[in-house]
Amino acid sequence: MQILGILQREARLVDFLMEDIAPFADDQIGAAVRDVHAQSRLALDRYMRLQPVIDGVEGTFTKTEGVEKAGLKFIGKVPPGGAASGGVLRHKGWKAEKVDLPPTGPNDVLAPAEIEIE
């Protein structure tokens, strides 16, 4: 809830995700995505330090030795027992090295409704 609230407040991410974008042209969506992406990334950088689970080159063979099991998801022809010593890295994964979120509020409102008084 906290990070969603931050991403809504600083990047309007929830607004963007809840919007029906089907009627818009690709160039309009692209312009909106660029701004939402930049603001979301700044917000994440402000409150978290994210690192890849495996800092390797996707598409190359990678050994899993020394990587926490919780950070691995085996896909494809997984051997019986569900683990392997290595395979082709398809996604580096993400882990939070540091999290420094502000205190939470007392409710589940991600962003309050805005009412303009004229």
Shape: elongated
Number of strands: 4
Percentage of residues assigned to helices: 25-40%
Q: Tell me about the biggest sheet? A: 2 strands, antiparallel
Structural class: alpha+beta
Strand order of the largest sheet: 1-4
The portion of residues forming beta strands comes to 5-15%
Mean pLDDT across every amino acid position:
92
Order of helical and strand elements: HHHEEEE
Number of helices: 3
For the record, the count of structural domains works out to: 1
> What kind of oligomer do you see?
single chain
Which ranges are low-confidence, i.e. pLDDT below 50, for 5 or more consecutive residues?
Answer: none
What distance lies between the first and last C-alpha atoms, to the nearest angstrom? 32 Å
Rg estimate, integer Å:
19 Å
What does this structure look like?
The protein is α+β, with helices and mostly antiparallel strands and 118 residues long. It has three helices and four strands; from the N terminus they run αααββββ. It has helices at residues 2-11, 13-18, 26-47, and strands spanning 48-52, 61-63, 86-88, 94-99. The mean pLDDT is 92.
